[in-house]
Amino acid sequence: MMVMGIFDAIKRELIDKEVLIEKERELRLITSALLSRGHVLMEGVPGVAKTYTSKALAKLLGLSFKRVQMTPDLLPSDIIGYYVYDQRAGGFVLRKGPIFTNILLVDEINRASPRTQSALLEAMQERQVTIEGELYKLEEPFIVIATQNPIEMEGVFPLPEAQLDRFLIKVVTGYTTTKGLVKIMRSADEIEEAIESLKPSVTREEVLEEIKNVKSVKVEESVLSYVASIVEETRKHTAVKLGASPRAAIALVKMAKAWAYTSGRDYVIPDDVKAVAIPVLTHRVIVKPELELQGVTPDKVVEDVLSRVPVPKP
Amino acid sequence: MKNVVLLALILVLALVATLSTTAINALGEADRHTPGFPQSVEGFQLPTSPPVNLSDVENAILELSKSSALSRGDAEKLKDFSNLSFQEAVERIDNPELRDSLLNLAGKGALSPEDVEAFLNYLNSLKTSGALSPVDELLALRALEALASATQNPYTSEIVLRTLSALKGLEVAQSNPLPALKSPQQFSAEIPAPGLPSLHLPFVALPAIPQLRLSLPPIPLTTLIIIAICGSVALAALLGRKYARPIFKRLKIHRIGGAPAMHIGDSVLEAYWRSVHIVSTISGMQKADSETHREFLAKVCERLDPRVAEVFKDITLAYEVYRYGFRAEAGQRILSGFRRLLEHAMVSA
């Protein structure tokens, strides 16, 4: 088993060479989501390298990359694709949408209309699209990295809970430290050039191989019970209106396996579960509105749950 | 740590001693006051002394010269004393060093209180060494007064007082060829020598400094008890540690040996949990139920001897491999690690 291949390359090329500064956690989470065949919702204010992170990852992994800027007038066909009449050929030909790629960056997903959002999310879930009655499978690996701005309130269509659940993780990315910011300012041009000139270090086949390897990571019975206890506890929590679903439990195990794999292990330990619990669960937990006003956030609820659920013993 | 405790002990003892002494004084003397006598400094006022000026000094000089207590030369030098200017006073001084000092002082311009004080000290030193005649002293003080008056120096009245004292010195010097060095206060209280005309100098005796009596509030008994307890604890921490160490060592070994019975059914897993018990005992940090093995390792390592921490780290990682990675070979690592940990624990305890 080739352990840590992808993440090793990412760390070496992007973190150690300071192409992306202070983004190791985000990169590791996105890599783990990719290896778990999940999609990522990136939440962060504009200008915190959300696009750069996705683009650099795609280039390094030798995968195709496309970007869609969501707007309220965007149609599902603009993403999925459509048939156009070709006069030379004398018939209709398919014009594939940007969804036919390996890594799709959907910028400001909450700006698209609910119709377009649901078309995209269906494609994400099924990993296939239907155009004019014809089914098209999307090429593996396929990962959607959708971004949204947490402070925008006007002109947006917030994702419904059911659709949020389709995202394997929500990565909250923020500002760098002062030291990191100084580094970015010092080498802004070099960073841009470095991302443009990135060469693939891992092939698509290797990525697929690693996805297969992650599936074989062992999860001991007591760890599964631990995950179940965490998920159930989110439902019982007094501050919670809607807790995590069984899909959330599956996502937690998947991510814990990928996290263990990127740590160089072929077995999951409780620490892996704890490490990914917040990115996996926070967007699936809804806090009671009256408590939300008092400052209780899903992050705090999950942290509280983790601090109370006992880890497997002996 | 030991030094800190020692310092704390000294400070506490010093505080206790100071407070006790003050408290006793305050309590003991409160009753000894004459009724109506002010017990606090706020209610006390200094007695006022009568105002003196240079004309008093001049009158005294005239009386001395009339009674032939002054030689003709000295009387000539001190003639028209109150109206002497700075230059005139300086010119009449015999001691060249003193003259230079006064001229230097005048050259400085505005006279500060420090300058006056320094000059008066200088006069004292000259007087003590016998290099200053009473007449020179009077003239020097007159010159200084002229300078001080010009700059409205607050020391002016003190200089005049000093001049009067110097005049007393002159009177005694004329009557007694071997004068003893006496303070101005003593002179003012002295009875003039029989047979000599007495000077009618104004009374310039400085008031005796009153003994300040601070009325401290009585210290509550509880405060004294707390201070005593703190002192005892500090003393026990300093001295008792040496004697307590063997006792604690024995207790710790007993606790390590007497781990609660575990019936896990797997000797390897049991060894890990016994190791947890040992490091908990050594470090005094318990593993919380929601804490992962690595979280506990990170927490406890900060408090362990590096060698013990290294052994426990190896045990923890081996436990994870054995428990979650299903690798039986890691069991041997846990068992050998447990034995090493036990040895280290016994030695370090």
Automatic annotation (TrEMBL), chain B:
Organism of origin is Ignisphaera aggregans
Keywords tagged on the record:
Membrane, Transmembrane, Transmembrane helix
Full protein name: DUF4129 domain-containing protein
In terms of superkingdom, the source organism counts as Archaea
Q: What residues form the membrane-spanning segments? A: 219-240
